Amino acid sequence: MVMDLDRAVFSGLVLNECISNALKHAFPARRPGTIHIRLCKTPGGFILAVADDGIGLPAGVVSHPGRSLGVRLMHALASQLAGRVEFHDANPGTEVRLVVEDIDVRG
Predict the structure, then answer these.
(1) Which end of the chain is more exposed for a tag (fewer CB within 10 A), N or C?
(2) CA–CA gap between residue 71 and residue 104 (Å, rounded)
(3) Which pLDDT tens digit goes with each residue over 21-44?
C-alpha cells in the first residue's frame, strides 16, 4: 500500500499511541498478552487496527474522550487525516481502529 508522507506520518503517530496505550494499560502486573496490528486497504481509503487481548477499556474512556490525553491525541491526529478513531471491545481486550476514507491509496 502506498500513501503520501503526511498521511503516513499521522497514521504512524496514531499507531504509536495505540501500541503505547496497549502496553501501558492492557497488561497490568506484567500479565502476558498479544497485540495484533492490521492495515487494510478499503475502496476509498484504509483501516489501521490495533487489537490486544488485555483487560479491556475502563468505563468512560470512549464516552468521555476529553479525560484522556492519549485518546484526545488520537482523535486530533485522525481529524488531520479526515478520518475517525473507533474503539471496540475485542472480547477479551480492545481494538482501536483508525478509519480513513476518500483518499488516494495505491495498492
Answers:
(1) C
(2) 26
(3) 999 999 999 899 999 999 999 988
